[in-house]
Amino acid sequence: MIIQIKNRACNVYSNVSQQYSHKFPYVKIRIETG
């Protein structure tokens, strides 16, 4: 159950980072690095 919540959070986080990657490029790098 914890893994499912974490996966959902990662999906939402990645979607937001893709939308605002031009404003916050460090977010994209943070996801790529883990």
Q: What does it look like?
A:
- With 34 residues, the protein is mainly α.
- Helix content is 76%, strand content 0%.
- It has one domain.
- It has helices at residues 2-19, 25-32.
- It has two helices and no strands.
- The model has no long low-confidence stretch (mean pLDDT 70).
Could you name the key traits of this structure?
34 residues; mainly alpha; 2 helices; 0% strand
- Biggest β-sheet: count, sense, barrel? none
Tally of separate helices: 2
The rough form would be described as elongated
The N- and C-terminal alpha carbons lie at a distance of: 20 Å
Radius of gyration: 10 Å
User: Which consecutive residue ranges, at least 5 long each, have pLDDT under 50?
Assistant: none
Give the SSE order as H and E letters.
HH
Instruction: Report strand %.
Output: under 5%
Mean pLDDT, as a whole number?
70
Number of domains: 1
Helical percent range? over 70%
Please state the structural category. Answer: mainly alpha
Number of strands: 0
